[in-house]
Amino acid sequence: MQAAEASARNFTDGTDVAVKFGVHEVTLAGDDAAANPFDTVATVTFMPPSGAAKAKTVNAFFDGGSTWRARVYVSEPGEWKWSSRCATDTGLHGKQGSFTAADSKLRGRLLIHSKNPGQWMTEDGRWFLNLNDTAYFLLCARDGSGAPVSDEQARQYVRDDAAHGITSLRCFLASRRGGFAESREQWIAWHFADGTRDQLRLEATQCADRRLRMLLDEFPDVAVQLILFPLEGYAQDDHFWTALSLVQRERLLRNLVARFAAYPQIFWLMTNDAHYGEKHPRNNAMVREVGAYLQKHDPWQHPRSTGHARRVPFYFGAEDWATYIHIEHAHDLGAAEMEKYRAFAKPVFLGEDRYEQDHGPSRDPAHMDYWQRRLFWTWLLAGGSANYGGRWWCVHPYSQTGKLPATRAVKPIPKNPFTAPLTGLDSVAHIRDYFTRRGIELSDFQPDDALVKDADDAAGVRAPRLARRAQSEFLIYHPHADPALDDQHTRPIADKAAAVIVDLSAAQGRFAVEWLRTDTGVTESGKEVPGGTLLPLRAPWPGVDCVLRLSLLID
Under 8 Å CB-to-CB from 300, ≥6 apart: which residues? Predict the structure, then answer.
């Protein structure tokens, strides 16, 4: 999926003409009588053109002063009507109106694929290619160092990411003024106006709201993994959520869903980097409670999961509230972790592996351009998807990373100055363009690595990977990795070309051959080859990882 800036408004309000697969908002004025407006429950029912069977009743949310807002995801074109109800605020009760929605070319909600539950799709029926970037503070007023993040800074960050092939982002819902820290204070800074925990912090959610609206209007094809809650402490069990009353929990969740659920591009992540299992019962209980709430109250049923810490096995794979699997690992360039979760038949997302310019030579990949595209290609052909990690603690647009003042190019934990440009996204756009231009949807494919081997016997993490569409199309990625420099320092073998032996014994007919040079996007066609045999093939270029496509020729 190619992310591109849109010229139309996809977020509309009042009597403006809305668009199908966009968001429309109505604004109401309360009577200011409530001691705590966050406790006021007001609902708005949106009636679509097709009638009452598809009506959506949503909670309105308080947005400061006398302002209340209610939002609907516009599922169809035509004339919509709405009406409000509230038992405790006369200003919010008995209001009604209408608006018209036009058709659009928007893709719609991100969903679990209807024909292949291990893959993603958008509501228009197309497969979603998940090429993700870590942008934790993109929606926040301040970054991990406590420095302000402007709307234009966020806009340029997404513009650069979209130009480099990124189709989704991982984002915290909020941050604290003092910068990144794992503590109970983080909870207050994200969500609560004061220590009573009864008033919600509008400053943070309004900033995230404004940025999501910008994304929907200008980059509607970019999905956002929305991380709802902070981490209280690494490897610790929860205390903060447990200490909240049921009223406080419900109030917070109701307001978050009311404000954010209408956005089509989001998919939920309860928290990030957490530990689960027998030693963390309160963490388990928290995400199960939040997951169950979203399962019951999210009107548009966005994908749901929670983020496990690095190398912590996903604990909730068989539970209904978890509709996709989010894991973290390190240098999993062979997608070995994918096999642990295939039986759950849910999308598997490697949401964190290794970062670029994070810990210096002790942990960072040495050749990030190659390392990152290798991670993406391998995970995609294994049936999952993966993430890129740049400068996670800040919002540095990719095109500016080699040009920033020294004061903006320092990672504080651990302190690490970087002035060189990032390179990890340099060849990712070729992945997006490869699938888009050929109309290839991996939801139609299944991994089958047994059908391919390296002609020079490279095995394990260095072995080629294969996915096939029945017996009519085969995609093979060969990492062509230097055996002396694998994992962190991996790079291609320099002095020869990648070579494979493909087992086409069960595939009859003749096949077209196309090679992709993954670093440049250059392709080259080979001679037609027969099925029904073991087929040796060698790439036309030395010193680079390649993709081989074999597609059945129709007479």
Answer: 73, 109, 261, 262, 264
